[in-house]
């Protein structure tokens, strides 16, 4: 067992931190209040290689592993969870679906511009009536000459408006239920494919979440992604990797809130001394630090399994479940340590707390993670 970062990982963390603190930090609250999608920063993330973190260099990626990728997401989210989720959704969902299941031609045509940051990706699984039960997908793809006609809609899609490429699931054979759902690649501007309502969210407000609509949208055969009928099965595998990045998002948000609480507790004086000298506050800080550490270790274990080509379903879900619940708890304690000031927008914890909540919902709620973990645990005994 090895608990050290490599020199490259130490350097990577330092570089991401410097970038996040100088290029993102000064704008966090302005973007949050105005729900500004930070396009200029997204371009820079592409130039730095972060939008192709987990893909080989031959496809325009940075050729990094999931541990490195977790470091990138954690460091970005420590400053702004919105930027963390932008990188996570782009890499883990849309781009990775094309990398894992795309043909060589599809990888060349779609993955290369995505991994180099020239294009932005979205991934559509969720529908208004198919959330946790994504096998209940209602969007349909009907066979036509040389392709498919897609009708339906997706909601809560990250980058629905700005994405150049969108991977989306639709039913190709209703009788086969979850084995009758296929994945398709949609390009911005295709006739019959358009973004719709943008959500006004509690947190992660600089990340864009909107619906997409398919109205008699013709998709040629070359844009069927993976085997016909395997879209749902493949999507579940994609989520195994995606949940590691949600754990990293949660850990980064928690770390940012924790650091803010430590700083404040050393500055704020009550009863003639810094509040950090009260044991009640020290115990909170000790619990927060311990929980964040445990969450980070679970995230690294899942990342290590992934980097070694091993199955991560249980470990990804455990890391995502634990890290996201730790994140909400740590952010809430950070507000408590800030007292009344923590309840205002003048101090960071309230935003961290709003952002952290998504981690218990996106890419499968905490309840769904418990179902997955229980299923895996019961298989093993
Ligand atoms: C900011 C944001 C970004 C997102 N980005 C994307 C994206 O890019 N692409 C995408 O496809 N989706 C995305 N989603 C959707 C997200 O994955 C879903 O919101 C999530 O899976 C839950 O689905 P739902 O919202 O329909 O809730 P529901 O499934 O309706 O769940 C409601 C409640 O019921 C509980 N529940 C449901 N079924 C069970 C059960 N069997 N047992 C116990 N409890 C249960 C849930 O845990 C939850 O508490 C995003 C969501 C948000 C908020």
Main pleated-sheet profile: 4 strands, mixed
Instruction: Flag low-confidence runs.
Output: none
**Fraction in beta strands:** 15-25%
| Average predicted local confidence, pLDDT | 98
Strand order of the largest sheet: 1-4-5-8
DSSP strand tally: 10
Assembly state of the chains shown: single chain
User: What series of H and E elements makes up the topology?
Assistant: HHHHHHEEEEEEEEHEEHHHH
Instruction: Kindly name the structural category.
Output: alpha+beta
The geometry reads as globular
Given the structure, what is the number of helices?
11
Calculate the terminal CA-CA distance, rounded to whole Å.
Answer: 25 Å
Radius of gyration, whole Å:
21 Å
Q: What bound compounds does this protein have? A: flavin-adenine dinucleotide
Explain what this protein looks like in three dimensions.
This protein is of the alpha+beta class and 381 residues long. Helix content is 51%, strand content 15%. The protein has helices at 7-24, 28-34, 39-47, 66-79, 81-101, 104-115, 231-267, 279-307, 313-337, 349-356, 366-380; strands at 121-124, 140-144, 147-158, 165-171, 181-187, 193-198, 209-220, 224-225, 269-270, 273-274. Strand 9 and strand 10 form a beta hairpin. Helix 5 runs antiparallel to helix 7, helix 8 (279-307) packs antiparallel against helix 9 and helix 9 (313-337) crosses helix 11. It is globular and about 80 Å long. The structure holds flavin-adenine dinucleotide. Flavin-adenine dinucleotide is lined by residues 89, 123-126, 131-132, 156-158, 201, 204, 209, 358, 361-365, 367-368.
């Amino acid at each position: 067992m090895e608990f050290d970062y490599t020199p490259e990982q130490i350097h990577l963390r330092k570089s991401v931190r410097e970038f996040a603190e100088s290029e993102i930090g000064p704008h966090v609250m302005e973007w949050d209040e105005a729900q500004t999608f930070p396009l200029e920063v997204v371009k820079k993330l592409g130039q730095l290689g972060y939008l192709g973190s987990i893909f080989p260099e031959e496809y325009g990626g940075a050729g990094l592993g999931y541990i490195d990728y977790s470091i990138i997401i954690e460091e970005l989210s420590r400053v702004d969870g919105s930027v963390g989720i932008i990188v996570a959704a782009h890499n883990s969902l849309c781009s990775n679906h094309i990398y894992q299941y795309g043909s060589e031609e599809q990888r060349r045509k779609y993955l290369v511009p995505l991994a180099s940051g020239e294009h932005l990706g979205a991934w559509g699984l969720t529908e208004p009536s198919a959330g946790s039960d994504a096998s209940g997908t209602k969007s349909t793809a009907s066979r036509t000459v040389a392709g498919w006609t897609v009708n339906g809609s997706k909601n809560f899609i990250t980058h629905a408006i700005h994405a150049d490429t969108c991977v989306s699931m639709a039913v190709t054979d209703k009788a086969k239920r979850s084995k009758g759902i296929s994945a398709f690649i949609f390009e911005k501007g295709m006739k019959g494919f358009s973004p719709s309502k943008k959500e006004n969210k509690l947190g992660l407000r600089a990340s864009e979440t909107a619906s997409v609509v398919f109205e008699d949208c013709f998709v040629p055969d070359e844009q069927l992604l993976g085997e016909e009928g395997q879209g749902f099965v493949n999507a579940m595998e994609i989520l195994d990797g995606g949940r590691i990045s949600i754990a990293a998002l949660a850990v980064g948000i928690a770390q940012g809130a924790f650091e803010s609480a430590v700083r404040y507790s050393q500055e704020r004086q009550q009863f003639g001394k810094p509040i950090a000298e009260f044991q009640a506050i020290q115990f909170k800080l000790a619990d927060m630090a311990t929980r964040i550490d445990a969450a980070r270790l679970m995230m690294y274990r899942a990342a290590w399994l992934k980097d070694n080509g091993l199955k991560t379903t249980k470990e990804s879900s455990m890391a995502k479940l634990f890290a996201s619940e730790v994140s909400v708890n740590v952010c809430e304690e950070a507000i408590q340590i800030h007292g009344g000031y923590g309840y205002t927008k003048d101090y960071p914890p309230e935003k961290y707390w709003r952002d952290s909540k998504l981690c218990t919902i996106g890419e499968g709620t905490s309840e769904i993670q418990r179902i997955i973990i229980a299923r895996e645990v019961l298989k093993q005994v």
